[in-house]
Structures are given as C-alpha cells and as structure tokens.
Design a protein that fits this description.
heterodimer; A: Immunoglobulin-like; seven-stranded mixed β-sheet; 11 strands; B: mainly beta; Immunoglobulin-like; five-stranded mixed β-sheet; 0% helix; disordered N terminus
Chain lengths: 115, 110
C-alpha cells in the first residue's frame, strides 16, 4: 500500500565509496523528485524528473546522478561519497510537472551517514 | 503560542490549546503555498494548501492564513493534541519547484 517507497532506510558507508538509493511510487504520478534534508531540517530540492526526463537540476555536485528507468522509479546514485553528503534524502512524487497546485507525496527518507 | 521566522524554533503548547505557527516567505511571485508536517523518522506529509488568490482556508482543526502584503503565512491548529507534535514546514512555489522554509518544531505538553 506504500505510495512512495525508498530503499534502504539507513545507509552507513565510508568516504570515497559509491552508493545508490532507490525510489518507487505506485501513485501513477508523472513527476518525481529528490530532496536533501540537512541536520537542521532544511529541505532542499536536488532533482526533478517528469516521465523519465530531467526537468530540474539544482546546484548539486556531479557526483550525484539521478536515473529514471521508468516514470515509477527514480534512483539516486552518489559517487565518491564525502562527509558533507551525510543527510536524509527524500524522494517525492506529484501528479504533473507543474509544482503549481500540485501536492507532493514524500517517501519515508533514507538516512545516509558517511564516515 | 506563536513562533516566527524561517529558522527552526520550538513552539511548546499545552494539550487542548490552540497553536499558531508562522512563516515568512521570500518570493512575492509565489502562487501556491503548502504546509507540511514531518513526524520523527518520517517524510513530510501534506496538511493544507492555499492559493495566492485566497487569504484564508480551513481544514479539519487547521486554518491557513495568507498575507501577501507582508509575505506572511500562518498555520493555526485548534485544540492541539499530542499527535500534532512534529516539525511543520511552509513551502512556496511559483512554476518551478517547491521551496521549503526551515520548519518549526511543535511540542505538545500533556
């Protein structure tokens, strides 16, 4: 029944490693997002995909690469992890690409800790 | 009780009291505003929204007020319950993406 799911929920890894976080939504939405939430709870958008097409790419290091194999999935791959990447990463989806008047549904988050 | 600003203050209220959480947004071109609730260990959850052509909208126990003149948004929770304890975010959007404020932590004392 989970609308937006993410795996894993927790991820602990060493600096320099490469890791991926997976996201799936079963709401039939066209648009999916990745957000980063820092230790002060500040939520910032990283990427947005609409029907597998990248539509928003905020100022994010190119070590972060989103991949959308189909419109129900948006995975986040991170290369050469750094200490500053430690955060909670949220996936979200919405019915259309226009954020205007469209509620976004969030996943439960993935807490990434880089040691 | 009331809170102000885009940093993460904590608002502590007694169970049964009304809560007011405030948010000052930055973009005068924003057309749509949403309040989200984030419980510990969970993702943000939609509470209520309001469009820029409105100044008030009511839901179940919640009311959102919008003052575009001073770019201010507030969330009022009536008869606050322990289950309302969470971090509350306002978010604004034009046509590009949601921009979130940094949130207010609401603590409900029994």
């Amino acid at each position: 029944d989970t609308a937006v799911s993410q795996t894993p929920k927790y991820l602990v890894t060493q600096m320099g490693n490469d890791k991926s976080i997976k996201c799936e939504q079963n709401l039939g939405h066209d648009t999916m997002y990745w957000y980063k939430q820092d230790s002060k709870k500040f939520l910032k958008i990283m990427f947005s995909y609409n029907n597998k097409e990248l539509i928003i790419n905020e100022t994010v290091p190119n070590r972060f690469s989103p991949k959308s194999p189909d419109k129900a999935h948006l995975n986040l791959h991170i290369n050469s992890l750094e200490l500053g990447d430690s955060a909670v990463y949220f996936c979200a989806s919405s019915p259309s690409r226009e954020p205007l008047y469209n509620e976004q549904f969030f996943g439960p988050g993935t807490r990434l800790t880089v040691l | 009780g009331e809170s102000v600003g885009l940093h993460l203050p904590t608002l502590s209220v007694q169970e049964g009291d009304n809560s007011i959480i405030n948010c000052a947004y930055s973009n005068s071109a924003s057309d749509y505003f949403i309040w989200y609730k984030q419980e510990s260990g969970k993702g943000p959850q939609f509470i209520i929204d309001i469009r820029s052509n409105m100044d008030k909208r009511q839901g179940q126990r919640v009311t959102v007020l919008l003052n575009k003149t001073v770019k201010h948004l507030s969330l009022q929770i009536a008869a606050t319950q322990p289950g309302d304890s969470a971090v509350y975010f306002c978010a604004e959007t034009g046509r590009r993406a949601l921009t979130f404020g940094s949130g207010t932590r609401l603590q409900v004392q029994p």
